[in-house]
Amino acid sequence: MLLKIYQTGQPVLREKAKLLSNEVLLADHTQQLIDSMIETLRDVPGVGLAAPQVGQSLQIVIIEDKKKYHKQVPENVLDQQARKAVPLKVLVNPKLEVLESEESLYFEGCLSVEGYVGAVNRANKVRVDALGRDGKLISYIAEGWHARILQHEIGHLNGELYIDLLQPRSFMSVKNFTELWRSALQDKIRKSFTK
Ligand code: ZN
User: How far apart (Å, rounded) are the C-alpha atoms in residues 194 and 167?
Assistant: First the structure.
C-alpha cells in the first residue's frame, strides 16, 4: 500500500521515534508497514525513508540506492561522492557511530521537504548497529554516499531534518539545483556556500 509522506511542519517529524520490541517488530501490522514503506520509497522513487515520514513514530528506516538512480548524476560527481548502489536495507532501532571526523559537503533533499535541496556536511564513514526486519542483529560500516543516507535517515528518528544542518545559503529549489549545481564538485560547493 502506498503511504502518504508527511511534510515538514507535521509534529511527528520532530518527535523522537519509539524503539520497537521484538514482539512489535515481528507483528503482522509492523511487517506490513515495512512492506508499504518499501513500496512507497520505490514509487517516489527515493533512496531512504524513515517511519516518522509516513506518520509512524517508530525506529524503522529503509534504504535503497539503485544504479538506475545514478543516471542523471555526472560520473565524476558520483566518483567524488563515493556513491555506489546500495541494496535494500531495513534497519530497526539503529545506532550510528561516526568512525571518521572527515566530512563532505554535498547537496541532499528529503521527501518531507518537497521541492528543495541544500548542502549538508556529513561524516564520510560510519558504523551502524541495528535489527533487521526479522529481529536479527545487523552491523556494518558504510562510507561515502551510503554513510550520508544513513546519517540523514537515522536523523529522522531523532526528530532531525537536514534543514537543521544545512549551510543556509545553499538552500534552493530542485529546479535551480538541477539547472545550476548538479555538476558541482566539492571545492565549488564549499567555496560557494561555506561562510
Ligand atoms: Zn529525509
Answer: 7
pTM: 0.97
CA dist 175 and 55 (Å) reads: 27
Residue 74 host element (H or E): none
| Per-residue pLDDT tens digits for 77-133 | 999 999 999 999 999 999 999 999 999 999 999 999 999 999 999 999 999 999 999
| Cβ atoms of 100 and 72 closer than 8 Å | no
CA of 103 to the centre of ligand 1 (A): 19
The set of catalytic residues is 153
CA distance 171 to 107: 9
- CA 194 to centroid of ligand 1, rounded, Å: 22
In 3-state terms the chain splits into helix, strand, coil percentages (rounded to 5) of: 40, 30, 35
Task: Determine the Cα angle at 64 with ends 109 and 143, to 5°.
Answer: 80
CA of 13 to the centre of ligand 1 (A): 10
* Residue 190: predicted pLDDT: 97
Choose among 61, 126, 138, 59: nearest CA to 93: 59
Average pLDDT over residues 127-148: 98
